[in-house]
Amino acid sequence: MLAKRLIPCLDVADGRVKKGVNFVNLTDVGDPVAIAAAYQEQGADELVFLDISATNEHRKTMADLVEQVSAQVFMPLTIGGGISSVADMQRLLKAGADKIAINSSAVAQPELIQAGAEKFGNQCIVVAIDAAWDAQSQQYRVYTHGGQQATALDAITWAKQAVALGAGELLVTSMDRDGTKVGFDLALYQQLGAAVSVPIIASGGAGQLTDFVDVFKQSPVDGALAASVFHYGELTIGQVKAVLRAKGVVVR
């Protein structure tokens, strides 16, 4: 059995780590390089670095900041934000990224998933999906541009399409749970797990130790991503891993 992964996320805007609730009301958390180094010390399995304002500001992810972070950490780095071409992917991989996450650009030009997978391998391409429950259509709707623009896409259908095009992993955030600390959206990940066979990272809603146990025990996800609880020191990676081990979940 593959070990489950614990993955802190650095949402970066204006060169600083930010955190909000339901994708709004962002507050400053600190310096991304220092925070990344702290997670390296704690034993995080991977680190996700999302330049959350890049797409809306029509600019590229800051490669120099990626270089600084990659110089501090030895765990795999997934980088996303403002990536709209294979050349962008190459620039960030050269700067130290191990995997590339694409979201808005993947929805706008799905062929980018295939182009990236063909050039760098499926394992390099992570399709990030921001999803919120739509009561009217009774489905999870996909949002782009940092959660600001609704699409007509059903998240489960889009996940299957992304994998068919070459995505080697899915990073799926429940916008309804983001920053709320009320637990992961288990129904979302159960549906996704039944639909695709690639690794899934769950994001949005982690608030206490039992939330991590629940998402790994009750859904087929491979990784759990969190920000607030780790950034503010409410939980440490070590604490979460100890509880997971005690509950029979295999972790590194």
Detailed description of the structure:
The protein has 252 residues and is of the alpha/beta class. It has ten helices and twelve strands. The protein has helices at residues 32-42, 63-72, 86-95, 104-108, 111-120, 155-165, 186-195, 209-218, 228-231, 237-246; strands at residues 5-13, 16-21, 24-30, 47-51, 77-80, 99-102, 125-134, 139-144, 149-154, 169-174, 200-203, 223-226. It has an eight-stranded parallel beta barrel with strand order 1-4-5-6-7-10-11-12, surrounded by seven helices. Strand 5, helix 3 (86-95) and strand 6 (99-102) form a beta-alpha-beta unit. Helix 1 packs parallel to helix 2 (63-72) and helix 8 packs across helix 10. It is globular. The N and C termini lie close together (11 Å). IGPS catalyzes the conversion of PRFAR and glutamine to IGP, AICAR and glutamate. The HisF subunit catalyzes the cyclization activity that produces IGP and AICAR from PRFAR using the ammonia provided by the HisH subunit. Its EC number is 4.3.2.10. Pathway: Amino-acid biosynthesis; L-histidine biosynthesis; L-histidine from 5-phospho-alpha-D-ribose 1-diphosphate: step 5/9.
